[in-house]
Amino acid sequence: MPAFNPELVRLMRMVLEEVMTRVPSDQVTPGIKAHMAEIILKAAAQGETSHDGLIAAASSQIQAILGMMS
């Protein structure tokens, strides 16, 4: 598991909270949030460290995750 510096960890948390606002409120669950966090972590581990890049990586998976969890 890669080590992330504190600045990147803060960015990933901010991105997670922002992406969760894009999930319909009636479908927000701890499981969905955990899956979104995993996507963000994987993107960062693969070298994506920009706000926009992490948002794009997570946002592109919202529908897939919602489908998987329903």
Task: Produce the secondary structure layout.
Elements: H1 6-20, H2 30-45, H3 51-59, H4 62-69
Helix pairs in contact: 1-2, 1-3, 2-3, 2-4
Would you write up a description of this structure?
The radius of gyration is 12 Å and the shape is elongated. The model has no long low-confidence stretch (mean pLDDT about 95). The chain has one domain (about 5-70). About 70% of the residues lie in helices and about 0% in strands. It contains four helices and no strands. It is mostly helical and about 70 residues long.
Quick overview of this protein structure:
The chain is mainly α.
Please report the number of helical segments.
4
Count of structural domains: 1
Order of helices and strands: HHHH
Share of β-strand residues: under 5%
* Rg from alpha-carbon coordinates: 12 Å
Number of strands: 0
Ends distance: 30 Å
Largest sheet: none
Q: Can you tell me the residue ranges where pLDDT is under 50 for at least 5 consecutive residues?
A: none
* Helical content class: 55-70%
Mean pLDDT across all amino acids:
94
Instruction: Name the overall outline.
Output: elongated
Broad structural category: mainly alpha
